[in-house]
Write a structure and sequence with these properties.
Layout: E1 10-12, E2 15-17, E3 24-28, H1 36-48, E4 53-57, H2 61-73, E5 78-81, H3 86-94, E6 99-101, H4 110-122, E7 127-132, H5 138-141, H6 147-164, E8 170-175, H7 179-192, E9 198-199, H8 207-223, E10 229-230, H9 238-251, E11 260-263, H10 274-284, E12 293-297, H11 303-306, E13 312-316, E14 320-325, E15 328-334, H12 335-347
Helix pairs in contact: 2-3, 3-4, 6-7, 7-8, 8-9
Amino acid sequence: MINRRKSKEISIGNVKIGGNNPVSVQSMCNTDTRDINATSEQIRKLADAGCEIVRLAVLNKDAAQAIKELVKISPVPLIADIHFDYRLAIECINNGISALRLNPGNIGKKEHTQAVVKLAKSQNIPIRIGVNAGSLEKSLQDKDMPLYEKMVESALNHIKILEDLDFDLIKISLKSSDVYTTIEAYRLMAQKVNYPLHIGLTEAGTLKGGLIKSAIGIGTLLAEGIGDTIRVSLTENPVEEVYAGYDILKSLGLRKKGVNFISCPTCGRTQIDLINLAKQVEERFKNYDKNITIAVMGCAVNGPGEAKHADYGIAGGIGEGYIFKKGEIIARVPENELLQKFEEIVLNS
């Protein structure tokens, strides 16, 4: 049982973050925010995959104006990602955004920061301070200290700006492309403040490599009880980030949304096209929202026994497969009919 760090509870739209709330899964659109049709379609796909919060890049005034329409049609809360221009933050708040990703020390004059914070406070709009290892303030870059300590100092400086303005609806991220640096930054920050933490690695890579690095980094922190929201950043369709996020959370017992899929690695006893079958079964049930375990195993000798904890499973034979339920074989089916029959049994149970 993971003993989670107790953090301050905040709300992003209708999603509660921190406190005793479950770790939420977040992603970011890679569309042009000004393109309302393309962006709303991607938001819908992310939401269908289980994404609970979606971040949008707001690069200019046209993008900030598009927020008004996107908020109306989005099924999940939206966060505006803003750099430097305080006017975009103000417009996004006025257009109904649920939260901001904004570093207050980067938006110029003190009165600009005050204007954003005053409006955010009046509307209960949280601000995520997002520190990236690759873009630290110049004053910190030459300091003789580990990179993760510089990241934490940067975040604390931004936090102080908000706290001095009596603002505490704060979430924090400290991202690096290096696993060790990221882990140490979050560990240190978790000791210093009680604000909720959004965890992930930045620039993690493409699907395969990015998943490995993210699973190690995010998984380590979650196992230590650190983290209130996560994003698995991948150079890939962002929907894959959502699936990966839930897989990490499910593997640690932190979320139980959807299917827990298991399959054996194949061996010389396997006489069915197990690799393709496993991929097809996983694809068929990736949006199935019931909390069940499905297994695809290579042979009838070990399959039902090793996976007897599974709610439903397939065990391969010679040109056929056995469908089992809680370790008991309930059907014997030719290989070319196996996937369809298995789907019928699971969906009609």
